[in-house]
Amino acid sequence: MAKQEKGIVESCPHSDASSNEIINVEKDSAGLQARRKVDVTVLPLLFLGLLVFQLDRMNLASALTDGFAKDIHVNQNTINLGNQLMFLGIVVLEIPSNMILQRIGPRRWLSAQVFIFGLVATLQLFVKNKTGFLVARSFLGLCEAGYIPGGIYTLSTWYTKRELAKRVAVFFFGMFGGNAISPLLASGILKLRGHGGMKGWQWLFLLEGVFTMCVSLVLLFLLPETDLVALKQRIEEYDNERKHGAQGMRIPASLVWRTMKHYRRWPHFVSTFAVFSTWSPLTTYTPTIIMTLGFNRIQANALACVGGFLALGVIFFFGWLSDQTNKRGLAVIIAHVCYLLVLVVTRSVHLDVGKWSRWGLWTVVNAFAIGYHPVHNSWVQLNCKEPGERSIAIAMWVMSAISGLMVGTQYFRGDDVPFYNKGLRTIIVMVSVGMFFAGVQEVVYWRYNQKAEKKWREEGGEKPWLYVP
Fold first, then answer.
1. What is the mean pLDDT of residues 318-339?
2. Which terminus of the chain has a smaller tally of CB atoms within 10 A, N or C?
3. Which residues are CB-contacts of 193 (< 8 A; sequence separation ≥ 6)?
4. What's the CA gap between 44 and 171, in Å, rounded?
């Protein structure tokens, strides 16, 4: 019998069986070679696009350490409102953007998106007042809508079930890696303050926005347009329940509605909304919190990146755990528990320790704040039956995450500075709620599978489709 993943053929006395095995090995070898091509082309390019996506959202946090709010005459409540409008724009156009991607393909649509939101991010250097700030953040959100679900859906068409979680984790490295390097880059760029008559935050928006537009050209010319036939065949062979996505596929309104009203999937969205909402205030105010410990703006931005880099290892660990055990829901819940424990410890002791210990606590909070997120995305994808349903379900999941971020902008308020003890309490509550609904989702899938298998054993017929718990 051929061990296809390793390409090993055991000896067999029957020549026809041996011939079939050799054909299967050659077929799978072509599929594995195609997968490696995707690993070194599609995955890094989508990663790069998500990295600049996050840089253009995250650099506001570093701009605040350079006096951005004071220069445009706004307070913390206005900053929070601006971020809410940005996230609202993403939510509004998430599903329409994903439907366009299905029609014209990822290369043209995703590269156009990256160019447009890079241009809008660059134009933020001209912001002078509250109105300009709110308009700029709103347009930035509208232009960024659809990139994350589009990138995730594109990846899901290239990999088998057991390969997907790690690749989605690598893709999200772009988002969380952007979160990590943003303050590090800012610590250098902000030193340009005064050059050319521009403030440091203006240089920040200019340089990172122009870099984003350059990345869009890389995506346009290098992102593959056509499917790799060998890889498509491999996916269908190993995951015979899955159908490969195809460029040019129409998604009818009836499928959108059917996917939206699929109530067994709703706990996913509630859990994601609750837990991911807690990341929003951390990305906006961590550098400012570190400044209040007694560090200057350059030091604060450099120290703020540590938690983001540690988060990459946490993300990869839970992605690996999910793939190794195939227990997607359990991996999500374990990641929630770790995050919750860190939050409880931080809120309990951070007011009674020195500045380096406080920095360490906030760093660990940032490290565990998103470890569950890519795994939860894979969990949603693996419980969709067809490409169109998967595309819409991903968009809905991202909409729930972005809606959470929109609400989370209000967790850290001006009357709770400098260490946001009330905000931490709110975050602990939201993580607990999200963990509860992840458990509910596990139970929903388990009960459905039990009933479906029992009915099949009693009545016979075709084996039922089962959820991945």
1. 93
2. N
3. 66, 199, 200, 203
4. 8
